[in-house]
Amino acid sequence: MPDSSIRKIVLAYSGGLDTSVILRWLKDYYGCEVIAYCADVGQAEETEGLEAKALATGASKLCFQDLRDEFAAEFVFPMMRANAVYESYYLLGTSIARPVIARGQVTIARAEGADAVAHGATGKGNDQVRFELAFARLAPDLKIIAPWRHPDWPFKGRADMIAYAAEKKIPVPVTAEKPYSTDRNLVHISFEGGVLEDPWREPYEDMFRLTVAPEKAPAAPEYVEIEYDHGDPVAINGRRLTPRQMLEYTNQLGGRHGVGRVDVVENRYVGIKSRGVYETPGVTVLLHAHRAVEQLTLDRETMHLRDSLMPRYAECVYNGHWFTPEREALQALVDAIQARVSGTARLKLYKGNVAIVGRRSDNSLYDPMMASFDEAGGYRQADAEGFIRLASLRLRALARNDGRAR
User: Fold this and answer.
1) Which 3 state secondary structure label does DSSP give 155?
2) What single-letter DSSP state applies at residue 187?
3) Which residue from 353, 351, 349, 230 is spatially nearest to 290, judged by alpha carbons?
4) Burial of 354 (0-12, 13-18, 19+ CB in 10 A)
5) Sign (positive or negative) of CA dihedral 158, 164, 167, 171
6) Is 183 in the active site?
7) In Å, how far are 49, 109, 139 from 56, measured between CA atoms?
8) Residue in 68, 81, 98, 158 annotated catalytic
9) Contact present, 344 and 292 (Cβ < 8 Å)
10) Which of 7, 189, 237, 339 is most buried, judged by most C-beta within 10 A?
11) Taking a C-beta distance cutoff of 8 angstroms, is the pair 38, 53 a contact?
């Protein structure tokens, strides 16, 4: 039975298969007003015609927010300062978009006097956790509707939904031939489901949208200089850019050289393994550039401390723990460390690869005299003897004990 106290719902709406079907189902099941909410986080042409589509599907209105600037500056850039990568490959494009969308959705729900918020995440995925943990921190009084987990939800899978959309004449960008789902924003495009559920099967080449195939990339490499200030990229080849512009430009730059394709089987927060294919050209370029400047400006212990915490930070983003005390504490540490990270990285892009070929900084800790094989530069090589003797004490003790044991 539907909850009669729910009179107005704000649904996170993309115009894709799931949210289109959900919009119609919510309206019919609850018999109440459903407002479609769309946040522009870099979907490009995917937002075109969305209002007419939402209204035709049953929404009372579409509330649209352009969140690209705050998404880049307040979410993506803080994450990039931490060099966050999940399970060695995934650059967290979908994960980092969910908290900014949820925050915007709560803002609209408050403005519209809604009783509930709804999302189209499935009960098998990560997004349900990401949305609902954000709602719990930002608006614990709002009811949350997750149709895929609802006891009266009539659809078993996407094939049922495709058939329902056809019956109701709801236009969706998914077909039985190519039923994978996509998610696009300023950071990446992700592809999941359908033919990609076979981890042995190579993706269709015509699936990719941000990157050319590396073998078809330009025959000549391209050199680029990226300037950093306090851990954030601020200029490319001397041209200063806003965070959003930086992501847009580097996506084009990396994309034309085939940079940033990843095919990974990852561990979802709910315990299921899933296969995802990602295009993340811009952030891949920026990750290498950031590392290059850090190599000069961070001392060993500080860098290693930050790197030891990077997997934990990445898990916070991946698992939907953005609005949590632990992520905020990690962010404070990361940002303090990044105070020294200013300088310029020089990269070479060539057929899917990013090579660091130069770096410079006024905060550089690199001493060429000290590092040289030809000059002492103030370093007394004899001092290393005592250093090694102390470092080897435990190993000598183990060796003595091993000898007695034999």
Assistant:
1) coil
2) S
3) 230
4) buried
5) negative
6) no
7) 11, 21, 29
8) 98
9) no
10) 189
11) no
Q: What is the pairing mode between strands 116-118 and 33-40?
A: unpaired
| Beta-strand pair 189-192/273-279 | antiparallel
Q: Is 66 a catalytic residue?
A: no
Delineate the domains of the chain, giving CATH numbers in brackets.
8-68+96-177 (3.40.50.620), 184-360 (3.90.1260.10)
Tokens of 164: 């329902």
Helices (H), 117-175: 127-138, 158-167
Confirm whether 364 is a catalytic residue: no
Catalytic residue among 18, 40, 115, 183: 18
User: How does residue 166 score in pLDDT terms, banded at 50, 70 and 90?
Assistant: confident
Catalytic, out of 14, 81, 103, 127:
127
- Position 4 confidence tier, pLDDT thresholds 50, 70, 90: confident
The CA-atom distances, in angstroms, between 193 and each of 82, 89, 115, 180, 290 are 30, 19, 32, 5, 33
Beta bridge partners of 227: 235, 344
d(CA 25, CA 83): 41
Strand boundaries in 325-370, DSSP class E:
343-350, 353-360
18 is catalytic: yes
DSSP-assigned states of every residue in 168-180: TT---S--SSS--
Residue among 181, 190, 274, 342 flagged as catalytic: 181
Q: Average pLDDT for residues 355-381, to the nearest whole number? A: 84
| CB-neighbour burial class of residue 335 (10 A; exposed 0-12, middle 13-18, buried 19+) | middle
Rounded CA-CA distance 110/138 in Å is 11
Q: State which amino acid sits at residue 386.
A: G
**In terms of pTM, does the model score above 0.70?**
yes
